[in-house]
Amino acid sequence: MNLNLDFSVVLERWPSLLDGAMVTLQLACIATVAGGAIGILCAIGRRSGPPVVAALCEIYVEGIRNTPLLVQIFLVYFGLASIGLQLSAMTVAALALTINVGAYTTEIVRAGFESINKGQIEAGQGLGLSPAQVYWHVILLPAIERVYPSLTSQFVLLMLASSVTSQISAEELTAVANYIQSDTYRAFETYIVVALIYVVLSLVMRAGFFGIGQLIFPRRRRLGTPL
Amino acid sequence: MGGSLNLNHLLFLLQGAGWTVVLSVLALVGGGILGFAVALCRVSASRAVRLVSGGYVQLIQGTPLLVIMFLTYFGLPAIGFRISPLAAAGASLTIYVGAYLGEIWRGAIQSVPRPQWEAAEGLALSRTQRMTRVILPQAVRIATPPTVGFFVQIIKNTSLASVVGFVELARSGQIINNSLFEPFLIYSIIAVIYFVLCYPLSRLSRRLERRAGQGRGQTLAPA
Questions:
Q1: How much is the ipTM here?
Q2: Which of A68, A186, B3, B65 has the fewest CB atoms within 10 Å, i.e. is most exposed?
Q3: How many contacts, defined by CB atoms under 8 Å, are there between A and B?
Q4: Which residues in chain B are closer than 8 Å to A160, comparing Cβ atoms?
Q5: What's the CATH class of domain A8-223?
């Protein structure tokens, strides 16, 4: 075997790799925020909505969780095109990732809701909190604080999964890698470098989520223990 | 170009679904063997073994499966290894699944209550006996629901084998679409087939989880 690796031709392309990494992070951020919001709304819908809404939310969650992201991306891409909407690959990618992570977030937040002790809710009511206040202070915030670690792992997985959007030519990191390897014929080196960039990105995201967690959950910061 | 969706197309899709199942089982078996080794390494007495296996898990869990697929299918031939699409997809999935199952099973092993470890040691069982006779039988019960749940992830992830040209369900859909050009219809059918494969397993996983929860609740109640 004649191993002769040359990483320099790949590393020379660092500006486009950096651009790709930025697009990946951008996709991940959009889908995290939008998908997180959808997930929380659907979890509330499943818990407290009228039966029709709860059923719709469940169909959404089960439908997304039991089909591959690749197929979902194609469905959004061609589905929007067939009703005459021509959106850019980036928009479709962000939309598909949002729909996808929304379903997983719903399931995680729902588990958080189920972990709230009934006595807590009764105590909140007994203290004269309004229903909205009980929902916010006693159910929603503590539930999210409890499932925050699972949520953040899900969002990191989402960032990695965004590589699949290269298949509809969204210009994120994996698409950049495909381009570089077809240009330099250095497939092995290219994908090794890109894999390492993804590892770095996931570490960055984990660190970011840890910091955000410290900021928004002061109780956890003070006591250093999970709820 | 031309024609409409007919029985032959559906049979072709079902054949693709068959390959999806084959690849999923391959990945589960290969990844299971690797994952079992990783789980044991992660709780090993040797610090070096723990560090290396932990590094492997961190590395794979920080890399998209798609990039691993590209690395094996396009990267290995570039440095002189010929590899078929099935071998590339199987190897990538094995490496990927091994890291995740290893982590799930490490959690299961470590959640066997501490007194069980101590009791086994107190009975003068060797390290191997303690693992095989006391810890693993209990860990298997804890690990079953999440493992079934992860099998659903494996089935969905085999769709990425389509990008290296392995003709499983997603790829056979693309092939049919190239001749019919009815993407929305065809991908909807494919989504339904994936759902039919995955949903029963999701339900099973949830049921097992509930039952295991009850069982554990009962045994731990006196403590």
A1: 0.90
A2: B3
A3: 122
A4: 62-65
A5: mainly alpha
